[in-house]
Amino acid sequence: MSTEPVYQKCLDPDCGATQEMRVATFTCPKCGGLLDVAYDWERLPPPRSLREFEAKWSQRTDPIAFSGVWRFRELLPFADRDEILTIGEGQTILQRADGMANRVGMKQGCLFMQYEGMNPSGSFKDNGMTAAFTHARQTGARRAACASTGNTSASLAIFCSATGLMRGIVFIGSGKISYGKLAQALDHGALTIQIAGDFDDAMERVQQVASRLGVYLVNSINPFRLEGQKTVMYRVLEALAWEPPDWIIVPGGNLGNSSAFGKAYMELRELGLVKKVPRLAVINAGGARTFDELVNKRGLTWNGGRFSRAAVNSYYAELDAAKSRANTIASAIEINRPVNLPKALRAIDVMNGVVRMASDQEIMDAKALVGAGGLGCEPASAASLAGLIQLREQGVIAPSDRVVCILTAHQMKDSAATVAYHSSDPDNFQQVLGVRGVKRASHANRAVQVPNELEAIVRSIELYS
Ligand code: F0G
Questions:
Q1: Using CA atoms, how far apart are residues 177 and 332, in angstroms rounded to an integer?
Q2: Could you tell me if the CB of 384 is within 6 A of ligand 1?
Q3: Measured from the CB, is residue 219 less than 6 Å from ligand 1?
């Protein structure tokens, strides 16, 4: 047991090794497993009630009280004020989504979207990046790296360029990143390494490179990133006047968000700050469905931390034997080997969670419903609404349940997918989009082709409006 009030602790109860807070290896020194950031709450007393955070609202000229992450600093108390690196992340809001509620059979006032696309880099990643960067500064790092399907790299690049404190190095798979995201890495000056492989390959390589060169790793294997991402749950609570919803639905890729949400509620419950814990639904893409397969088909459970590693390894061996790679239009979650799998199992346990998978067709149709409902998101984010539609059909979620879908990133991140969906005719969808899984564009809003002639233009408008 560490004598410091903040330390890193192995997730495996049979190991339980600890590591100092200011060390950046992020794997257990004894067994190589995942680490948690652990707090001695006796020495770092949290607020007595969540309402105490409301006092921060009147201090918005202070950047730390303004940040949607650091205004909850007492629940992630690993940094002193002057160590914190913030770029104004987390100014995100919970939007009531009555239009979408109608379309998916929910009662008015029961469905909400937590729109994380409002972050400076356009995705939820900034919540975690501010925490990782703060820790990087605490460890004296000069270079920071990540593997990415595009959003982590965009966030890393923006934090490097905005703070000027670190050189950013991003590893991306070739051909696996949308232009919107690639543009961000390039524009913000990150050293961009495009390797011949996919995200799973890039993730393995960046870990090797980080340990060899002593570069600070900002992927969500880094437990400090997850500390920042816990705050998405605090903002949801804040927006609901501190009354937990019935359900949180989130896309699952590397399973960082799911893990962070589980830890947030585990701590809130331990600290007596909430009476109820919402249920969690994690939604994989059908072409990257490791979590769904392991939980629903192979019965994997957290089991107090003693989950079956053999089941995980044998599934990965099967994927390798079949040369099976992740493949989905939701490129952000095109991941077969989620690094946070053990923590996500814990989250399912803490939040009485379920796991589902949504096909590319379901994801793209759900994305169009998000757009029609007045918000925008990239394909991966729409997995949350696609999951809700399934859970409604299965009767797991009732029309009067209060449901929060996390919209993880902005619509403009992957405009090619959006335009392809709305402009394609069903027969050439595959050609336009380059994916097999989307056969119909059920909610397409096609552009109307007209000659450059006033009468024809007027006729078209009369016909279609
Ligand atoms: N949604 C979006 C838009 C994402 O970019 C990601 C992950 C996820 C969902 C999945 O979140 O990993 O916490 O389960 N993107 C990572 C990246 C992998 O590199 O940008 P998760």
A1: 8
A2: no
A3: no
